[in-house]
Amino acid sequence: MNAVNGIWAPALTPLHADLAPDHAGCAAHVKRLLGAGCHGVVLFGTTGEASSFSVDERRAVLEAVLAAGAAPERIMVGTGCCALSDTITLSRHALTLGCRKLLVLPPFYYKGVSDRGVFACYEKLIDALDGGVRIFLYHFPRLSAVPITMPLIRFLAENYGEVIAGIKDSSGEREHTLQLIEKFPHLSVFPGTEMLLPDTLRAGGAGCITATANVNAEAIRRTYDLFLNKDPDAEKSQAAINAVRTVLNRVPTISALKWIMAKRENNDHWLHIRPPLEPLGIPDAEKIMRGLRLGEL
Amino acid sequence: MNAVNGIWAPALTPLHADLAPDHAGCAAHVKRLLGAGCHGVVLFGTTGEASSFSVDERRAVLEAVLAAGAAPERIMVGTGCCALSDTITLSRHALTLGCRKLLVLPPFYYKGVSDRGVFACYEKLIDALDGGVRIFLYHFPRLSAVPITMPLIRFLAENYGEVIAGIKDSSGEREHTLQLIEKFPHLSVFPGTEMLLPDTLRAGGAGCITATANVNAEAIRRTYDLFLNKDPDAEKSQAAINAVRTVLNRVPTISALKWIMAKRENNDHWLHIRPPLEPLGIPDAEKIMRGLRLGEL
């Protein structure tokens, strides 16, 4: 059994009209996700528009979520920035508040950097933190353009032992996720989509960290439990969550998830999103309405 | 004549052994570049490792450079971050200190964003600043992966007039730079390499903002002046600066420039660089030594 597993939701970040984070809204959304069956919530992943907020804005949201009663052990905090100094600041802040699980992107401005250079980033981060930290490496080559390669993971794991706790694999590639699980059985490997849940669980992976959990947590959790219990209904349940994901893969996902939340809660504040992302356009909203029955989500 | 023109150096950022910016070193380097003939200096461009520093670190360096006597009108400040809130903070700070020229990258984490989304970033920035600001759009598709397209430039220029003052074109593509100069004659167009200086000046462009100016400012400035004076020696002078650039294009440029400064000043502190970038390796140092006579730089 992996140390950390299950269905984790990278929470959307609700905003006010001036695009400042809505602290009460963030806390309520996290509470809802945990209540809907998510094993945990990631604050400030890609879905949470992490890079679009300042260090101070990110700290304040985490404080608000914890102050509202979320258990620190069920929160994983995204802390990876381009500036090592920012990553260290955010990581120390999370640890001080009892959040030991950190999802850490590598710096993503410079491209074509070496594994040695990326290793040095994690090395300096870990050296600046206390030993209780548990780092989840964030592999998202399509957006960061700085991959976390297999040799880099091996080198980090060899050097830092249990501090390197897992990997979020947002490559979307089945074979890549399966290779990670095979090569690093002691790490918690989370693909970034529930469509890889059956393969992941069969191979011994941890579960998934999936944006769709923001709007479909109950069904994804139920499917996870069915697979774990080897229930014959698991495949049917998986087909239903795949159908939802397939529709959401065809539209700008973060904007679409915020639009669904606005519909569901009848609250247009959910449409606010920081540029360069944009509120969902009407043609994409129509694609969703043709593909999904929102009332069933 | 463009409002802003000439040879601008995107300054390297000297660091202490703990990788904190060396304020005295930064101020001395800027002073040296201005004394060596640069019309101006860009603080916190790509060459200055801008994205590798926190907002507070960037503010402190600018303050130190100005406190040491650099004229604010000869400093252009890189302020574009992924978080609009950070970009606004840095931009207001620069304006407060009398630096009106800002080099602004678009947010660069999310890829495949629309021109509308990028426009919204500049719109919200400009609306948050006083009207005296002069914005230079930073087009560096290889690193930011978010291009500043021609329609976007046109739309910004139409909406904000003289606030949109210029473009740094780090595409490295001659045709792209020439098109910008042709389409936007009222903007100061700076290619990111001195190798495009003759084409740029003939077409009516502004000059260049080039990393190589950190170590070869005198010769680049002399070449610029020769072209402006239609001096027959201009082409020969250009060939010499092209030869230097060609060597530096074959190695990791920022690391190489820091290595050259370390040699020239006999000060290994110049080798410090923030990860994920790395100090120059020996094979690359040998490439430079084979290609350049450092004493002549």
How many strands in all of chain A? 8
Q: Could you say which structural class the secondary elements and strand pairing of chain A correspond to?
A: alpha/beta
* Mean pLDDT score of chain A: 96
Subunit organisation of the chains? homodimer
- Residues in helices of chain A, as a percent range: 40-55%
- Biggest interchain interface, per-side counts: A-B, 38 and 38 residues
H/E order of the elements of chain A? EHEHEHEHEHHEHEHEHHHH
Main sheet summary of chain A: 8 strands, parallel
Q: Give the helix tally of chain A.
A: 12
What's the gyration radius of chain A in Å? 18 Å
**Shape type of chain A:** globular
- Order of strands side by side in the largest beta sheet of chain A? 7-6-5-4-3-2-1-8
Strand content of chain A: 5-15%
Terminal residue distance of chain A = 30 Å
Low-confidence regions of chain A: none
Task: Kindly list the characteristics that best describe this protein.
alpha/beta, eight-stranded parallel sheet, 8 strands, homodimer, 297 residues
How would you sum up this structure, described in words?
2 copies of one chain form a homodimer. With 297 residues, the first copy, chain A, is an alpha/beta fold. In chain A, 47% of the residues lie in helices and 12% in strands. Chain A is built from 12 helices and 8 strands. Chain A has helices spanning 23-35, 55-67, 84-96, 115-127, 141-144, 150-160, 174-183, 197-203, 213-228, 234-249, 253-265, 282-291; strands at residues 6-10, 40-43, 75-78, 101-104, 134-139, 164-169, 188-191, 207-209. The first copy, chain A, has an 8-stranded parallel sheet. In chain A, β2, α2 (55-67) and β3 form a beta-alpha-beta unit. The mean pLDDT of chain A is 96. At the A-B interface, α3, α4 and α5 of A face α3, α4 and α5 of B.
